[in-house]
Amino acid sequence: NETRFRMVERMDPDRFKQFSMQTQRYAEQRIAIYQHMASLRLAGNGSTGGSGSIENKSADKPEMAKGGA
Predict the structure, then answer these.
(1) Is residue 25 part of a domain?
(2) Is the pTM here over 0.70, yes or no?
(3) First to last CA, the chain
(4) CB 56 within 8 A of CB 39
């Protein structure tokens, strides 16, 4: 719906497609990073004064700890 994107697409369709695909990859990478960050948790009971170390929730799963999927 954005006129500016349609104008760029008409000017150079191949380059527009390349940029679109690159942008999609970057978005997918950011989503993967955010999902990974969401799977992390801080050690401790949630009160102040915790150790501040980070644990990965997937490490609690036996199949993940053994290197399996």
Answers:
(1) yes
(2) no
(3) 42
(4) yes
